Amino acid sequence: QVQLQESGPGLVKPSQTLSLTCTVSGGSITTNYYYWIWVRQPPGKGLEWMGAISNSGSTYYSPSLKSRTSISRDASKNQFTLQLSSVTPEDTARYYCAAGSRAYNYDLRGQGIQVTVSS
Question: In this predicted model, what pLDDT tens digit does every residue of 67-78 receive, in sequence order?
């Protein structure tokens, strides 16, 4: 059974780069599922799809975040990462990693990690 676990800092200062890691257990990021996804949910708002990386390494980004977002993977560690640069308080959200057979929908999601952007 594939499980996902997010890790990273809970507090980031404005203008810095947010870096989060998703560790996958019970499966491989190069074989299980097709897409490994990041989504987030700001306080009081709905889920926002941020981007995805396929099991072959192709990346897909939300047009509104593309200039600030990078998703990569480390197959040797069975992890994939999210980097979001130049963060502002509007990037405060609960961030989730997920997996699915399509880039824009997921079948499985981690518990999420709360990230606050504040000085």
Answer: 999 999 999 999
